[in-house]
């Protein structure tokens, strides 16, 4: 099946794919509690994933990757999230940047980036600015000088950047005559780049989501990407990443609850069995957690399917084309764009629905875990609280209340969802 000059396989074996990464996932899981307790950043885990080719699994086989579909990607990310939910979030910007180049037109720049991904280069993100930056404004500026382009600015929530080789930076031309918003690919080793480990969230503590400063960083023309070229289903893609992370947390809650009950030897005098694992009420608690984790994963994977359709629609010349003799007001290109826009809207709504449902399910499971155990479960050494802290942190991105309204407006009025998300200080009234 050809899309541009890429060839993607629809027959990548899920079992072999999972087996390829399972030993790494198991090792990552073994160190997750200690990393959370000591806030030790998972440099080794990121390195091992990179060396194993995890960062290039979306690249077609013929170009050196694994050629996985988007659904397969998110299934693997759920497994990784069950091992340590910090890792999928660390790689979120990376896979977004990969996806953008998979959607890009053929050319030497795309070839260069595909080669970097296959060699194991990892990309972090630096999009969000804090402080008094007005909504819709971008303080990080790209400036043309007699010596070439320079980039200056300050970003926060730079998830994954501290582990990365490159940074996906959202910026704006200082001179409007040069253009508008851009993506700048910045080498983390470049002079003028400072990456600070100052993320202080109570959850997802080892994602490295801190400050990145750009101080007159020299930028080549090939590192500048017009923002309007960005892949159109990006916001849905980034949200489904969060759903996969949450679903992974749900799986981890189920695993830890079942194991803790299985190993528990102390019982209550008012319990229902001589062994906790045989107590019908405790079995019910763990069963409910398992059901919620199952539902969260099913919803996350269901939300990934419209993303795949949006990807396919981008490479479907003549898709939905009409007979010009029947209707001369529409061209095949117009109909293809209409089909692609509809696919993107469907992906956005599916991701929003998933966020609303999965957040509640996983937070409920992370709390219910303690109903299956005694007071010893709150011991810091077990770090069972990390599941709730991590889930609450991930689900605080892109507020649910707004997503509920968007979904409702779509259902009632057919309103197209907004696919550009921004945050900033309230603009001054005119």
Automatic annotation (TrEMBL):
Region Disordered, annotated ranges: 315-337
Any Pfam family: Acyl-CoA_dh_M
All copies of domain Acyl-CoA dehydrogenase C-terminal, residue ranges: 245-398
The enzyme's E.C. designation: 1.14.14.21
Localization per Swiss-Prot or TrEMBL: Cytoplasm
Catalytic activity: dibenzothiophene + 2 FMNH2 + 2 O2 = dibenzothiophene 5,5-dioxide + 2 FMN + 2 H2O + 2 H(+); dibenzothiophene 5-oxide + FMNH2 + O2 = dibenzothiophene 5,5-dioxide + FMN + H2O + H(+); dibenzothiophene + FMNH2 + O2 = dibenzothiophene 5-oxide + FMN + H2O + H(+)
Domain of life: Bacteria
Domain Acyl-CoA dehydrogenase/oxidase N-terminal: 28-98
Protein's name in the database: Dibenzothiophene monooxygenase
Natural source organism: Robbsia betulipollinis
């Amino acid at each position: 099946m050809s899309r541009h000059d890429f060839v993607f396989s629809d027959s990548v074996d899920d079992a072999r794919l999972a087996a390829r990464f399972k030993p790494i996932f198991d090792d990552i899981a073994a160190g997750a509690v200690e990393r959370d307790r000591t806030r030790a950043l998972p440099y080794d885990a990121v390195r091992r994933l990179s060396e194993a080719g995890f960062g290039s699994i979306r690249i077609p086989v013929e170009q050196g990757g694994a050629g996985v579909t988007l659904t397969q990607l998110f299934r693997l990310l759920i497994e990784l999230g069950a091992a340590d939910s910090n890792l999928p979030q660390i790689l979120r910007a990376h896979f977004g940047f990969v996806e953008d180049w998979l959607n890009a037109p053929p050319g030497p720049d795309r070839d260069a980036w595909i080669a970097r991904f296959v060699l194991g280069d990892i990309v972090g993100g630096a999009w969000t600015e804090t402080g008094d930056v007005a909504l819709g404004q971008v303080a990080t500026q790209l400036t043309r000088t007699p010596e070439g382009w320079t980039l200056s600015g300050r970003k926060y929530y730079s998830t994954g950047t501290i582990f990365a080789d490159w940074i996906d930076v959202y910026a704006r031309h200082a001179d409007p005559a040069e253009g508008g918003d851009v993506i700048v690919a910045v080498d983390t080793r470049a002079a003028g780049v400072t990456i600070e480990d100052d993320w202080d969230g109570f959850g997802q503590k080892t994602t490295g989501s801190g400050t990145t400063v750009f101080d007159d960083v020299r930028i080549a023309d090939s590192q500048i990407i017009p923002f309007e070229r960005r892949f159109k289903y990006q916001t849905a893609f980034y949200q489904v990443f969060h759903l996969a992370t949450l679903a992974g947390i749900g799986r981890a809650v189920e695993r830890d609850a079942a194991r803790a009950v299985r190993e528990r030897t102390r019982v209550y005098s008012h319990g229902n069995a001589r062994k906790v694992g045989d107590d019908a009420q405790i079995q019910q608690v763990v069963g409910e957690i398992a059901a919620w984790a199952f539902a969260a994963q099913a919803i996350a994977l269901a939300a990934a399917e419209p993303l795949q359709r949006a990807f396919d629609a981008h490479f479907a010349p003549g898709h939905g084309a009409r007979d010009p003799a029947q209707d001369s007001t529409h061209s095949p290109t117009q109909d293809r764009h209409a089909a692609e826009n509809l696919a993107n809207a469907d992906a956005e709504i599916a991701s929003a629905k998933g966020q609303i449902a999965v957040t509640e399910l996983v937070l409920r499971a992370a709390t219910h875990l303690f109903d299956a155990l005694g007071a010893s479960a709150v011991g810091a050494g077990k770090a069972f609280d990390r599941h709730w802290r991590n889930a609450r942190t991930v689900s605080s991105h892109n507020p649910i209340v707004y997503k509920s309204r968007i979904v409702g407006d779509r259902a009632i009025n057919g309103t197209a969802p907004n696919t550009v998300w921004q945050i900033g200080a309230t603009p001054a009234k005119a």
